[in-house]
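## Example pair
The file below holds two records. Each record gives the amino-acid sequence first, followed by its structure token line.
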Amino acid sequence: MASFAASSSLFSSISLRTQVKPSPSHCRCISFNNNDKQTNQQKGLGLWGEKAGKRESFSQTSAVRHLTGSLTSAEGLRFAIVVARFNEIVTRTLLEGALDTFKRYSVKEEDIDVVWVPGSFEIGLVAEKLGKSRKYQAVLCIGAVIRGDTSHYDAVANSAASGVLSAGLSSGVPCIFGVLTCDDMDQALNRAGGKAGNKGSETALTAIEMASLFEHHLKC
């Protein structure tokens, strides 16, 4: 019995040491799986990085064309300007800013037509008609909507914006939004030659660039 107990104790000790000591091959197997997973992730990142690099390189290649309008090739382009008579103290100054800019960029006076309408609400319809006439490379839309005590301001401002957008989409001719939407008269005057510059001039610059883009690059 003593011999059997000793043998059992020795066997238990060997079994315990066997259980505690991990199998070298088992460790290698686990280590291999982890490394393999990491390697796959690294490969994935590597491929992604390679693709990103190719895309960046592709975007910088000289074969890609960048089309832009020019502010130095306005000669020969024709423009129409639709101006709202309402708040004329503002809109006339905006018109003068646009005409002065056209002159500075070599647009001839005979290549400019000015059309007066009662208010900003009517601008979109006339702009669409002028665009569809195919006589002009761009149509400027100038007006001034000033907030009052009622919701009339919101209706007119939204209608003017959507009307100009619709005119351009319908006619296929750039219709440039130059309608001021201000809280009071001081804000409007500041944007019509005051502290904030003249938005009519900015509208003319946009018109020249868009007209040049369509005429030289997007003409059907």
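Second record, same layout:
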Amino acid sequence: MSLNIRYIDMDLSRGRFSMSGKMKITWTDQRIGWDPTFYENMEVVYLPFSKDWSPDVFLHNGLSDHFMQTKVGMLTYQGDINYEISVHSISACTPNLNLAPWGLQICSLKFGSWINTQYEVEYRLPKRDQIVLEDFIGTGWKIVNTSGRLQSINNPLAKEPVHLVVFDITFQRQDHYDAGKGIHMKPKINETEYEL
């Protein structure tokens, strides 16, 4: 599971972190592979999403989330399945009000499942490119650091723990427009004074 972030926003007064982007999910099912030499050297087949199995994905700390699944997935002859899912989420995040609105913010997105427990589906992170920023649009925020990690939590609906993929995003405001005062502010280099 990996994440490509396109947009972020933080409502400091309400502790709401908004994120839009794409999630890439890949897995291998060797039962559905084939030998390309028997099928005109065909190595890839595109399948409708509804025709095959896919892991359940749920944003555990979400206040609101919308997952728009792609209509097709890519299946390789080795049994590798690749899907991209469009993600638009609002999650709970405790704001850092030190030096507000310029202080560093750290918000986490905790993805996993309530249905597929750790022992049926093991969520993993790729060794590199866990979070990709190539499509990121600044919109007043600068992403300073990103990381991915695994976390196990107890599921009250199952005997086994649930394995979560957690994406941590550290970001900071680049500029701020105060509509009430009609002023546009940017932090100075030491970030303790503000430039109007």
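Notes on the second record: Confidence is low (pLDDT under 50) at residues 191-196. The radius of gyration is 20 Å.
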